[in-house]
């Protein structure tokens, strides 16, 4: 964290950001924050919109986050990206541009960003999902923004797929969100916040 400023985190994304399907109501965000020990209590705002694509996300993030940030705080933005762009027929170029616009806008306002990529779905073309995740990863890499790849690690993960199948077939339950949280916690989360690794 920067100095002694209060940590304020806005988490924007689709229904996976809100933990839809998790009987405990934690989702991956709640599980990650439970393992994030800060000196002072952190303010975390989950700003989820179901089935949101990156065009809509790009249009709303700044107004919603600025209402929750303060000039004296350590303001951070976490993007939990889904694959709604594929459902809406957005091109990879448009998806890349939308994410780039968000990250560049945040950088201009000195807001640190952390991006969590879209996990696998069974109702959408596998290769298209892989290409979308790779496009998001590339945008982040070019801007030195941490990116958590979730598609490839979970693509053939039996527990992930069985957990999704046990629910509504689209959203994970407790086990699936636990896997997402593990990926976030072990791919630069604590370093991004300037905190010691929880192990």
Question: How would you describe the overall organization of this protein?
Answer:
The protein is of the alpha/beta class and 199 residues long. It has a single domain, classed as 3-Layer(aba) Sandwich (Rossmann fold). 47% of the residues lie in helices and 14% in strands. It has helices spanning 15-18, 27-34, 54-66, 84-88, 92-108, 126-142, 151-154, 158-166, 174-185, 189-193, and strands at residues 7-13, 43-48, 74-80, 112-116, 147-148. The chain has a 5-stranded parallel β-sheet with strand order 2-1-3-4-5. The two termini are 19 Å apart.
The chain-level structural class is: alpha/beta
Spell the H/E element sequence.
Answer: EHHEHEHHEHEHHHH
Q: How many β-strands, per DSSP?
A: 5
The neighbouring-strand order within the major sheet is: 2-1-3-4-5
Termini gap: 19 Å
For the record, what CATH class applies?
Answer: Alpha Beta
- Major sheet attributes: 5 strands, parallel
- C-alpha-based Rg, rounded: 16 Å
By CATH's scheme, which homologous superfamily applies? SGNH hydrolase
Assigned CATH architecture: 3-Layer(aba) Sandwich
CATH topology: Rossmann fold
> Mean pLDDT, as a whole number?
94
Low-pLDDT residue spans: none
């Amino acid at each position: 964290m920067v100095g002694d400023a209060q940590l304020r985190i806005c988490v924007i994304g689709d229904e996976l950001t809100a933990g839809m399907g998790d009987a405990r109501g934690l989702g991956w965000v709640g599980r990650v924050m439970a393992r994030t020990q800060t000196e002072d209590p952190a303010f975390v705002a989950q700003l989820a919109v179901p089935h949101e694509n990156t065009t809509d996300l790009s249009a709303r993030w700044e107004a919603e986050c600025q209402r929750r940030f303060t000039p004296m705080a350590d303001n951070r933005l976490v993007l939990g990206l889904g694959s709604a762009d594929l459902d809406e027929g957005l091109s990879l170029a448009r998806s890349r541009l939308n994410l780039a616009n968000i990250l560049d806008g945040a950088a201009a306002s000195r807001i640190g960003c952390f991006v969590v990529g879209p996990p696998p779905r069974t109702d959408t073309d596998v290769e298209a999902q892989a290409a979308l995740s790779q496009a998001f990863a590339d945008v982040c890499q070019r801007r030195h923004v941490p990116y958590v790849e979730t598609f490839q690690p979970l693509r053939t993960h039996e527990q992930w797929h069985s957990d999704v199948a046990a629910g509504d077939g689209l959203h994970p339950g407790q086990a699936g969100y636990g896997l997402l949280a593990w990926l976030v916690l072990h791919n630069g989360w604590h370093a991004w916040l300037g905190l010691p690794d929880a192990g």
